[in-house]
From TrEMBL:
<feature type="transmembrane region" description="Helical">
    <location>
        <begin position="20"/>
        <end position="42"/>
    </location>
</feature>
<dbReference type="GO" id="GO:0015165">
    <property type="term" value="F:pyrimidine nucleotide-sugar transmembrane transporter activity"/>
</dbReference>
<dbReference type="InterPro" id="IPR007271">
    <property type="entry name" value="Nuc_sug_transpt"/>
</dbReference>
<feature type="transmembrane region" description="Helical">
    <location>
        <begin position="101"/>
        <end position="118"/>
    </location>
</feature>
<feature type="transmembrane region" description="Helical">
    <location>
        <begin position="307"/>
        <end position="327"/>
    </location>
</feature>
<keyword id="KW-1133">Transmembrane helix</keyword>
<feature type="transmembrane region" description="Helical">
    <location>
        <begin position="270"/>
        <end position="287"/>
    </location>
</feature>
<keyword id="KW-0472">Membrane</keyword>
<feature type="transmembrane region" description="Helical">
    <location>
        <begin position="187"/>
        <end position="207"/>
    </location>
</feature>
<feature type="transmembrane region" description="Helical">
    <location>
        <begin position="125"/>
        <end position="142"/>
    </location>
</feature>
<dbReference type="GO" id="GO:0000139">
    <property type="term" value="C:Golgi membrane"/>
</dbReference>
<keyword id="KW-0812">Transmembrane</keyword>
<dbReference type="InterPro" id="IPR037185">
    <property type="entry name" value="EmrE-like"/>
</dbReference>
<protein>
    <submittedName>
        <fullName>UDP-galactose transporter</fullName>
    </submittedName>
</protein>
<feature type="region of interest" description="Disordered">
    <location>
        <begin position="218"/>
        <end position="254"/>
    </location>
</feature>
<feature type="transmembrane region" description="Helical">
    <location>
        <begin position="357"/>
        <end position="374"/>
    </location>
</feature>
<dbReference type="Pfam" id="PF04142">
    <property type="entry name" value="Nuc_sug_transp"/>
</dbReference>
Length: 375
């Protein structure tokens, strides 16, 4: 993502970058997720029994008929939407490194919400492990020239090369900022990061709660009576039902069409992505980049690499969902911390990233914290 956000050689000085719009890329990654999840539901049926009609029935039943369940996903979708946008705001108030370091507080807010909302108990040793993880991953993300004791006055030029997954600067304001100059709005920046951390924890834990809730029973199944049933049975509510099929009877899945038990996670993700897509297009693409879209189109300056980034964002989001389902949000904090270390190592040859003592100490703390938490 950092690579695709680098200024293009075709750029004219003092004119906006010839850069794809981040808002449309985010919307497209939601669309990607919907397509992938639909395919996963389709292929969750046994090979010989797959059909588009069955997929349609599953989607119709789960998303439209069970609209109360769908509505629940509007909450994490909106929380994530606000959180994602607060990250952009925080990045305009703080330099990228300060943002990256302070944003790690989300590990602790996530643990707090896991205790409050999911009634999890965390023993003291786990809190200690989480605190070590938070400090460790913060150290890992300090730029090489940063002096810990002049916190907030980092050189943004280098630190911007190792962005968060949502680090983004469509208008190049970060790149234009003079190196070594601390942004003025440090306090509002910190408050913004704090709110983003709270929303990150809340959205993640709320999604986990929905994902791990026992499935609600499907709508009453409509099974037409056979001729022998009709002849033998005395008039009953069922035969009455048979004469007067309920509305949507043809759409309520027969036993064979029922949603495979493993497909719940894909339905939840489609439900959430539908909200994210609609809210994202209406509020972010239209309100933030509406003029640019009218001027140069929705897909302006897209390159094949843009699609690769979109695909990775979508895949990353779905993996987050799998981690939350089969592990939990706290373990996700460990997983992403280790992924930051691994991507820093890849940055050694991609972005000339230099391994510093702080990086080594931070990485060791992350690894030690993972071990301690695992105990
Ligand atoms: O910063 P944080 O760890 O909270 O970010 C998690 C990211 O995972 C968010 O950007 C969110 O959009 C994404 N996500 C997703 N699908 C899910 C859950 C989270 O794309 N089911």
């Amino acid at each position: 993502m950092a690579y695709t956000r680098l200024p293009s050689p075709d750029d004219v000085p003092d004119q906006p970058h010839k850069m794809y719009l981040a808002s449309t890329a985010v919307a497209m990654s939601e669309m990607f997720k919907i397509i992938v999840c639909a395919y996963m539901i389709y292929s969750a049926h046994p090979l010989q029994k797959r059909s588009l009609r069955k997929l349609y029935n599953n989607l119709y039943t789960e998303i439209i008929l069970q609209w109360r369940e769908t509505a629940k996903l509007a909450i994490p979708a909106s929380l994530y939407l606000v959180q994602n946008n607060l990250q952009y705001l925080a990045l305009s108030l703080l330099d990228a490194a300060t943002f990256q370091v302070t944003y790690q507080l989300k590990i602790l807010t996530t643990a707090l919400f896991s205790v409050l909302i999911l009634n999890r108990t965390l023993r003291r040793i786990k809190w200690i492990a989480l605190a070590i993880l938070t400090v460790g991953i913060a150290l890992v993300q300090l730029p090489p020239e940063a002096n810990i004791f002049t916190f907030g006055a980092f050189n943004t030029q280098d630190s911007a090369a190792v962005p968060s997954d949502l680090d983004d600067d469509p208008h190049g304001s970060l790149a234009k900022r003079a190196p070594g100059v601390a942004p003025e709005n440090t306090l509002s920046g910190f408050v913004t990061v704090l709110i983003a951390c709270i929303l990150s924890g809340l959205a993640g834990v709320y999604f986990e709660k929905i994902l791990k809730a026992p499935p609600t029973p499907p709508p009453q199944q409509y099974t037409p009576l056979s001729q022998t049933d009709k002849e033998s049975a005395s008039p009953s509510p069922i035969s009455y039902l048979d004469e007067n099929p309920p509305p949507h009877a043809d759409l309520v899945p027969k036993e064979d069409d029922a949603l495979p038990p493993t497909a719940g996670i894909w339905i939840r993700n489609i439900q959430m992505s539908l909200f994210s897509f609609v809210l994202g297009v209406v509020f972010i693409v239209f309100l933030k980049d509406g003029k640019a879209v009218i001027r140069n189109g929705f897909f302006q300056y897209y390159t094949p690499l843009t699609w690769v980034v979109i695909g990775m964002q979508a895949g990353g989001g779905l993996i987050v969902a799998l981690v939350v389902k089969y592990a939990d949000n706290i373990l996700k904090g460990f997983a992403t911390s280790i992924s930051i270390i691994l991507s820093s190592l890849v940055s050694i040859w991609l972005f000339e990233f230099k391994v510093t003592t702080t990086f080594v100490i931070g990485s060791s703390m992350v690894i030690y914290a993972s071990y301690l938490y695992g105990l």
